[in-house]
Specification:
225 residues, Alpha-Beta Plaits
Length: 225
Amino acid sequence: MRVRMEYRVGNDLKFLGNLDMMNLMSRALRRARIPFALSEGFNPHIKFSLGTVLPVGVWGEREYLDLELAEEMEPQVLVERLNQVLPPDMEIKHGIKLDEKEPALMKSINAASYDFILNSNEDYSALPGRIMAEEHLLVKSRGKKKGVDKDLRPGIYKITVTSRGESVIIKVWVNVGEPVNIRYDELKDILIAQGVKPESIVDIYRSGNYIRVGTDFYSPLEKVS
C-alpha cells in the first residue's frame, strides 16, 4: 500500500538539511510504530521518498512525502499517529491512498511557489507587471553551473503582491527541474534588482509544490490517478 502525505515544516526547523529531514522522518515512523515496508538487501531502509528538496534556510507550508506500507492502514490513522511523535513545528496535514502505478513525487512535481514577506509600506503593485514584461532575467547561477549567467524568465510563471497590515507578501510561482530550475535565492536577487530593499525581506518560505499542467497548478494530492 502506498500513501501520499502533505506536511508542514515550520520556521524552527528551516535549517535542517535534506538528510536531517530524512532521518527525522525515519525516526518518527519508527516511534509511531507505523507498519512501513523495507527495501531488500544488506542494508534495508524504509521505503519512503520526499518531494523536491526544501532549501536550507527556508521553511515549507505544503511539502509532500510518499510512503510504502507493509500492510493496510487508514491514512487518517497514520496522520494522527505521526503527529503525536513529530517535533512541535512539524505537522502532517493530510494523507491519501496512492495507486501503485502513480509516478513518484520527484517525477511529478514540476513547479513551486515561494513567498517573500516584506516589512514595508511601499507600493509594489507594479512589480509583477514589470518583471513579467522583461525578456530576460539574468542572475549568476548558484546551482551546478555556479557563477554562470542563468536566465530565470522562462521559468517564472506568475507573481502576485498582497498587502497585510504593515507587511507585503510577494508570491512567485516558478519552474522546478528542467528546463530551468529556479532557486529561492536567485529569485531574491531578481526582486532586489527590481527595487525591493534587501533589509525589508524578513522571511521567505515555500508556500506550495505543484504539478503544473498548461497554465493550471495542482497539488500532488489533487493530481493523482
